[in-house]
F-box domain-containing protein (Tulasnella calospora MUT 4182), 437 residues
Amino acid sequence: MLSTTQTAKFEPEQVVDQPAQLQNGNAFGFPMELLLRVVSLLPTTSIPNLMVNRSLRSVCEQGLYQSIHLPWQSRRAMRLLETFLLRPDLALLVRHLEINLYWRSFPANQVPSALHPDGLEALCLAKNMQSLSLGGIGDWIWEPKMAKFRETIFKMKLVRLQVPFIHDPHTTYACKWSIDSDSEDEGEDTWDGDLGDEIRRLLQVQPLLEELKFSDSTITYQTSSSLRDKLKHSDIPRLKSLQASPDVAMAFLPVTDRLERLNLTIEFWSDRLLSDMGTKSASIKPFVRHFSIRVWYYDKWLWNNLAKVFALFPKTEELLVTINSLTTATDAEPARYFFEKVGNNIYDLPSLRHIEVKFETSNPETPGIFEVETEALVEYKTACPRLETVVDPAERLWTFQSYHQGSGGSVPQLVGLLIKESWELWKDLPAPEGSNS
């Protein structure tokens, strides 16, 4: 189970609005599918070097704009939306977009004038989107002033959608919105809608949706209860992958019959939550094959009941446990302690073939912080005889070799470190001269 930065590029897809030379062939006589395949395998930084003529330029533009990932690069996101405004034809090439819109809170003198008031009009030009991840615009689902943008999202035929951090309007501090920004007292009102209804409305107009991700959000019990009461199978007929908090996930589990991947975001567990999850997950136990869970390292209840949580999905073949956050404080246990704890609780997963244990820490370079004992790997294999591979906290891939054929015994074999994408591609553009950001 690899992270986002370790996954391969999307396969080339059919583009609806292709230039004439792409539809009719190219100057080299190669099949267009072959050229697109070659471009898709090249590093992003190398593709512009091939734009030597009109035919190759069209192919390269398709390779560059088909899948765009800018999760933390606010200024690159600004320039991308500027490009959409200047070249709407390029916006139509985009199929997969991960974009950060935090720049909407930048001072006005740092945002290009072409994007005023907020640049969302440019994003609306990418009408052929299939996969969308938004950051920095968490209230677009319900805010009245975002109605036009919301309708644009509704018209997309999305297969994958990642919903950004949501400020639930039912909370005390998120329920106010101003009609007249020039007045401090007048024009202030409370939103009297239902966020659960708005989320369901979004799902109803996306019948092709297979993957849905909720980022860590302040979703209230009122909203999650609304979803549990009203969500139906017809709202998510093709859903195969879900990322959400346990409380939100419980609204989806009873009404989906295709769910293969479940990623539970961080939350403090309790006996009540475990019991509710057991009831809600009963109908999908045979379907979930890929189970991920993110936990606090100091959540004592969860560490004492981890085996019961894993047992909720006994058909799991791939397991990812992310621990947040391991610190270097004197009272914090080292990585090997948690690695062994996970291994001691996987015995109820007889189908497990791959497991990854990773840590989120502010001190990743601390010597020895991710060291684990090879004896722990043997315990993993003993608990789950079908286990084939393990990724340890140091991101090393292990497999197992038998002592003697048919003996049943095995020893861990180090394959090597996982290869990561270069972080050079993830750097943002520098701030304008004289800015204070």
Q: What stands out?
A: The chain has a mean pLDDT of 81.
